[in-house]
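Please describe the entry underneath.
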Amino acid sequence: MTPSDIHTTEHRITVDAPAPAVFGLLAEVDNWPRVFPPTVHVDCVERGEADERIRIWATANDEIKTWTSRRELDRDRLRIRFRQEVSQHPVAAMAGEWRIEALPDGRSTVLLTHDFRAVGDTADNVAWIQQAIDRNSDAELGALALAARHRQHREDLLLCFEDCARVAGSAKDVYDFIHQAQHWPERLPHVARVVLEEGTVNVQMLEMDTRAPDGSVHTTKSVRICFPDNKIVYKQLRTPALMSLHTGQWQITQDHNAAVITSSHTVVVNPDAVRTVLGAQATTADARAFLRDALGRNSTTTMQHAKAYAEHATDR
């Protein structure tokens, strides 16, 4: 590798929050899917006192990419260094650093740096990576500033819940039902249309039209990361107006001769849409109750049909 192989970038923002709070948001990598728009899912492979190894799935130039990184957390200097151990084409290697500096007025500055090599060092590959870094860094820094400034308020808008069902059948049959979403319009009464793409094995792009009880139809677009035969995690890239964020998970476990399905949801209410969608007198609490009912009803319906599918498969 020669110096000309290495390309560098810098992105900076001033955040209306103290530096330790900003560092905390960056350190809590498990929460990145709800903080950072490009991040779909994060698995912590190993975690030590001041370092960790993580696997990330994220959007990059409208594609889904995954990589494994080593992170070193320096809590005293408020710095986080990262290096990709396993990269994905067209990235040959990538590393960088988050640096947070406190300002006298209680705010802080965040500097995000990257240095990378592109496969073959071709102009097209370098340009693709540069564009992805620019788009994702701008989105991440903007979201970080917003989350740090409104962290307490954001918790008031946060809704997390789960529903479960027990199935007298195999976990694999339940998983197959949920994984094969292309069949949902014929199998689920609330699903009107599905477009499912799986360009990379176990990474799906799902566009779906869902019918509400009042007859209206809502279009969502989600990334689904599939872990055969027991888990599918997803993040909606296009949400209904009442939500600014929706992530979820289907967990299927085998318990002797039965399977247990758990549907989990994490939602952030969009406060600007509450009165438009639910009426002039509606509150955030009304929106939380509405979403708990609507999402829970759809999940329960899906689980009941998955249960019937799996139990029928056992009977055959």
Remarks:
- The CA atoms of residues 165 and 303 lie 7 Å apart.
- Helices lie at 19-27, 32-35, 123-149, 151-157, 171-179, 184-187, 274-278, 284-315.
- The two ends are 60 Å apart (CA to CA).
